Amino acid sequence: MNKNRRLLALSIALAALPTQAFELLPMASMDDNHVFKLEVLQVTDIEPYQEALNGFLDTLKSQGIEQGKNLKVNRVRIDFDVENGGFWSRLGVLFRIRQEAARIAATKPDLALTIGTPATRHARGILEDARVPLVFTAVADPREAGCASLNDGGPGVTGSTLYVDMRDSVRMVQQVFPAVKKIGMIHTDDENGVANVAAASSSASQIGMSVTARQVGKSDSIVPSLKAMFQDGKGVQMFAVPLDTYYGLHRYEPAIDLGEFGAAHQIPVVTLAMVHVPGAVMYVGADFRQVGSLAGVQAGKILRNRTKPDVLPILRQKTPTMLIDPERAAALKLDLPSAILAHKTATRNGFWQVDWEQVRPQ
Question: What is residue 33's three-state secondary structure?
């Protein structure tokens, strides 16, 4: 009985203490002196991936997490025979991704960032088992990276996607080029490229246009395929560039050759991704830096508040970016719709950025 009385008295005394004595410190103040460790994993080293990482790090910095101060970054770029393509090359890349994922799992960083579909899809399982929070970016379609849906990353995963509704992009192309019925697209076995071409083909068929696709190896020249598809003016009427790492390899040689071929034959080149192609007249898609920034928003919540990735939705750019190269448009003697001319803004690189919401086909 004496013991019970003492416990009751202690309970009453604790209940009488000021409630402030039981308040938890804010999570951010507990981490003020913590140096966050970030592991970055990607396959191939191309400029758009760097843009995505720049956007990611800039957004973390705006949240008080800055490289060189309270953020330590280790970045791995896998280039294991990636340009040669083929089964054994793909198998080698897969092995390297899993090898690096196992290393990351063993080091137990505060966060892992994967850039692109291959790194995300093949590393996520290992990182999930190790309970390492994973954020991804520069993924064309999250479902191709093992996510449950466009919005749900699945266990231990969140991030940002380059996904845009391809139907809108293709309709915009048709609005600018109403006479074009046949589009040519050249791609490799790049997961993003394959998904991009399939989406464009499906969307084009719904509005009376067709897409002819041709797959090449990552080390192949693009020129033979351009000639075969153009057929001296009897084939495709336009070339569209998908979201494919091929165009950033070999010092952008495929992109340069495509632009020069288009200029020489007066055939328009458009890009369905924000990948610079000299000679392209129109760009429609998600901006890599902006998408990387969205991943940084989610990463900040995980690092500062220890939010579980599972509860955070996958983010994507609300409206696609649309650019027009006025010099190329003039060279093609392109008669741009009045709506585009009325809602354009000049950018620092000389392109026109068009207000998507004002010109989007209904």
Answer: coil
Neighbours of 34 (CB within 10 A): 12
Distance CA 255, CA 98 (A): 31
State yes or no: pLDDT of 190 exceeds 60: yes
Side chain identity, residue 76: V
Degrees to nearest 5, angle at CA 43 with 249 and 119: 145
Residues β-bridged to residue 57: none
Cβ–Cβ < 8 Å for 158, 310: yes
- How many degrees, rounded to 5, is the angle at CA 297 between CA 293 and CA 301? 155
* Dihedral sign, Cα of residue 284, residue 313, residue 290, residue 192: negative
Global model pTM greater than 0.85 = no
| Residues sharing a CB contact under 8 Å with residue 141, sequence separation 6 or more, in sequence order | 117, 150, 161, 163, 192, 195, 199
User: What local confidence, expressed as pLDDT, does residue 302 receive?
Assistant: 98
Counting every residue, how long is the chain? 362
Q: At what angle do helices 288-305 and 47-62 cross, to 10 degrees?
A: 40
**Residue type at 351 in one-letter notation:** F
DSSP secondary structure, 187-228, as one string: E-S-HHHHHHHHHHHHHHHTTT-EEEEEE--TTS-SHHHHHH
Task: List Cα–Cα distances, 351 to 141, 247, 325, 344, 360, in angstroms.
Answer: 28, 20, 5, 9, 19
Which H helix or E strand runs over 3?
Answer: helix 2-16
**Phi then psi for 317, rounded to 5 degrees?**
-60, 130
Q: What is the dihedral of CA 180, 226, 246, 284, to 10 degrees?
A: -10
d(CA 159, CA 123): 14
Within 10 angstroms of residue 146's Cβ, the number of other Cβ atoms is 19
Per the CB < 8 A criterion, the answer to whether 266 and 234 are in contact is no
pLDDT in tens, 156-179: 999 999 999 999 999 999 999 999
